[in-house]
Design goal:
The chain is of the alpha/beta class. About 30% of the residues lie in helices and about 25% in strands. The strands form three sheets. A seven-stranded mixed β-sheet has the order 6-5-4-3-2-1-10, with helices on one face.
Length: about 260
């Protein structure tokens, strides 16, 4: 199974997670996800790993996720990819920053994304998913690698597919929806899309707090109670339909698709 080598750093006073992601522990190239603050610390981590940044990926343009974008782009020469709907917040960051934070340096994105794109960078396939609700243009990056098995470097983690979900889904929590452009119904729909699109064991690397899996959050996250109820109801309805079909046909039935969270799609 292919793996990814992932190194997370909690950055700035809001403790936003920034991630260095590469195909394996000795890969010479990486992508950098959400460099929120502390560019010198990020540069030190990159130097320690002896890795070159090939792209800077931004899940959304709240200040705590983009405060070091300009500095990191200038220091590394890497192009910046950000949500198309939020590019103005990256360019004019201080107009969108809470009092008491900053000032930060704005940056004109080199590329914009809206969801549905596929990127191939640093030997990784990156699927771009539109996951609004916390912010209007929020993106999640589903990253996978075709590299052969390799053990992660010290402090890293190895996984074949990883979701960099920004502020959509956390351990036992979800992104806030009381900021401009926030909407709970839209956010819940975005989370349901992730649950339907990826397996339960898929690991989530959020913008704050620790890592988790989609399955763990569907089973235990208190904010997803209604989503759990819908999934359970669909499971019951699907099982009943299959049972009914078996009773009405004497010939062996063709195996039906699995019934479960995939029905949320």
């Amino acid at each position: 199974m292919s793996t990814l080598d992932i190194h997370g750093l909690m950055l700035g006073p809001v403790q936003t997670n920034g991630y260095i992601v590469r195909t394996h522990a000795t890969a010479p190239e990486c992508v950098l996800v959400d460099p929120g603050e502390e560019p010198q610390r990020l540069l030190g981590a990159l130097a320690a790993l002896a890795v070159e940044v090939k792209a800077i990926l931004v899940t959304h343009c709240h200040f705590d996720h983009i405060g070091a974008v300009a500095a990191m782009a200038r220091a590394t020469g890497a192009p910046v990819w950000c949500p198309e709907a939020e590019r103005i917040a990256l360019a004019d960051i201080n107009s969108f920053t809470f009092p008491g934070f900053g000032p930060f340096e704005g940056y004109e994105a080199d590329h914009v994304l809206s969801g549905g794109e596929q990127l191939d960078i640093a030997g990784m396939r990156i699927e771009v998913l539109s996951t609004p609700g916390h912010s209007p243009g929020h993106l999640t990056f589903a990253v996978s690698s075709a590299a052969s098995d390799a053990a992660p470097a010290d402090g890293g983690a190895a996984h074949s597919v990883a979701l960099f979900s920004g502020d959509v889904l956390f351990v036992g929590s979800v992104g806030r929806v009381d900021l401009p452009g926030g909407d709970w119904g839209v956010l819940e729909s975005s989370i349901a899309t992730l649950m339907s699109r990826f397996a339960g064991e898929t690991r989530v690397y959020p913008g704050h707090m620790g890592t988790t899996t989609l399955g763990r959050e569907l089973a235990t996250n208190p904010f997803l109670e209604q989503l759990r109820e819908r999934v359970s109801s669909q499971d019951r309805d699907g099982a009943a339909a299959l049972d009914g079909a078996g009773k009405t046909h004497s010939a062996p039935a063709t195996p039906a698709p699995a019934v479960g969270s995939s029905n949320l799609r």
